[in-house]
Here is the input.
Amino acid sequence: MKKIITATVQFNHKAGDKKYNLGIIENFCRSAAENNVKMIVFPEMCITGYWHVRNLKKEQIGHLAESLENGKSVIQLQKLAFEFNLMIGAGLIEKSNDGKFYNTYIVCLPDGKMFSHRKLHCFISPYMG
Here is the structure.
């Protein structure tokens, strides 16, 4: 039986600061790879921030949201997955092709594949499905 070393990470994200939060994620991924971790998972909406979203207007949520097809955060996670040979799970606010917003969790694999799941009961904002 093959063993897979996994890691779970909880960190204090900065509200609305995707660059900072992705920097923290990158640091943890680097450390994980150095310790032979193959799968690392981060909290829901850790890229965009979570707790502050309840106070945002629809336009502000739209500013944080991004497409899963070509969003900068998704592309960054895919690069990290390839660079560190890791399966990486993290959450963000997705903007779908029809303009709706979702609390979405994505998992990026080293081979470039990406999987996603939308939270079924998103109560953080009335603007999110």
User: Anything to note?
Assistant: The radius of gyration is 14 Å. The chain has a mean pLDDT of 96.
